Amino acid sequence: MLKPQKKIPKREMKQDPLITWYFEAQQWFESRKKLLSYIGLAVVAVIAGGWIYMNNRTQAEQNASAALGKVMRYYDLGQYELAINGIPQENIRGLQSIVDEYDGTASAEQSQFYLANAYYNLRQYDKALEQFAGADLDDAMFVASVRAGQGACYEALGQYAEAGSSFEEASNISSDELLTPEYLYDAGRNFIKSGDRTRAESLLTKLKKDHPMSVYAREVDKLLAELNT
């Protein structure tokens, strides 16, 4: 004959650690139910906001890329004013419009680089410098080209020390076997013009040593001869 199970006194149940934890957790949850619901809503809002932001950014990049593709044919043809201003009546955005409208996208940053080059080719060097300074590019080749572009602007303005420094910085960033010696050559040439003989000789010697087969290395001796005249 089965014996009736012994009932656990309430006092012993309360002393059980697991049961105690359960009741305490339940009380904690009940006391903070409203706060937790607010936190849950905040998390949902953050996730939704992030999704909307990324979706909008992707769409902006697609629009900027499409606009840049349309206007680049004018840039490539040397029609720089059209490239800058676009042709609104034909729904072609200019580089300036792309930079302003899609700021922060990769295509807008590239557009600002081309915009700077367009101003340089129109001999509007101050505007070119402003655009070069605003171009925030990640690719090392573009970054080096930006510094070289700034150097070209400074040289055109007769600011040879600044030009030399910009070209030198471009040479330090660049890993291109064709462009790096050119940047070194331009840096040395501008330092000669600025009167900084020591810096010029150092860069030109580096060019001849590190890039002996470059076409610019053949011109180094001529520039070094200028230092001794």
Task: Describe the overall structure.
The chain has about 230 residues and is mostly helical. Among the domains are: about 60-140, no CATH class; about 160-229. Helix content is about 75%, strand content about 0%. The protein has 12 helices and 2 strands; from the N terminus they run H-H-H-H-E-E-H-H-H-H-H-H-H-H. The protein has helices spanning about 10-15, 15-30, 35-75, 80-85, 95-100, 105-120, 125-135, 140-155, 160-175, 180-195, 195-210, 215-225, and strands at about 85, 90-95. Strands 1-2 form a two-stranded antiparallel sheet. Helix 10 (about 180-195) runs antiparallel to helix 11. It is flat.
Low-pLDDT sequence parts: 1-5, 48-54
Sheet bearing the most strands, described? 2 strands, antiparallel
Strand order of the largest sheet: 1-2
Q: What is the residue-averaged pLDDT?
A: 83
Helical amount: over 70%
End-to-end Cα distance: 124 Å
- Helical region count? 12
Give the overall shape, derived from the CA principal axes: flat
Structural class: mainly alpha
Our estimate of the beta-strand percent is under 5%
Number of strands: 2
The gyration radius over C-alpha positions equals 33 Å
Helix/strand order = HHHHEEHHHHHHHH
Which properties best describe this structure?
229 residues, mainly alpha, two-stranded antiparallel ribbon, 12 helices, flat
Layout of secondary structure:
Elements: H1 10-15, H2 17-31, H3 33-76, H4 80-85, E1 86-87, E2 92-93, H5 95-101, H6 106-121, H7 125-134, H8 140-156, H9 160-173, H10 179-194, H11 197-210, H12 217-227
Antiparallel strand pairs: 1-2
